[in-house]
Fold:
Amino acid sequence: MNPSLRLAAESAQWGGARPPRPKRVFDVALSALGLVASAPVSALIAILIKLEDGGPVIYGHQRVGKGGRPFRAWKFRSMVADADEKFGPLQAGHRDPRVTAVGRLLRATAMDELPQLWNILRGEMSFVGPRALLTREAEVGGGGRVVPLSEIPGYELRQRVAPGLTGLAQIYADRDIPRRQKFKYDALYVRRQNFWLDVRLVALSFWITFRGRWENRGKKF
Structure:
């Protein structure tokens, strides 16, 4: 087994059956607190984005939620304006030319995702779960063929739970591995999810944010 996947499996051993009510209470309480506490930081981020290129501050995009239901997720814009229209909905890579100077800082600390606290408060997302995928997201497969993510094994399984800001794949998987490998982490979470695992993954995520290592290739903590 891949070392990082083994580490993720060990993390996923915490607790027993999934308690949905504590998870939702946790999401609501933490997202509400986060929105209030991060308000000054969000205002500063908005100013920096506007000063850099004068483009939109917030970027809204259609994502696939629980059960395949689409919803609009919100982020601070970290790429050039109209990046999807110009380059297509592809996964961000190392030294991605679409990412702005301010965007690189936001991505390293995951601050670009602060507006998604609203999505969590509304129940469209959770703090912990598989990454919310774009409705038209794809990756480049063998021979340069563009492969829709819906064709990759594990795509349907990950839709059994709400997408999250963080999760096993976001923390333990290398950013540049193929999606079929990331979906293995998502499947592991779906099968073993529980409240205390969520608490542990959120704590690890705060540590990664504090160290500014979200964009690291390889270990993040």
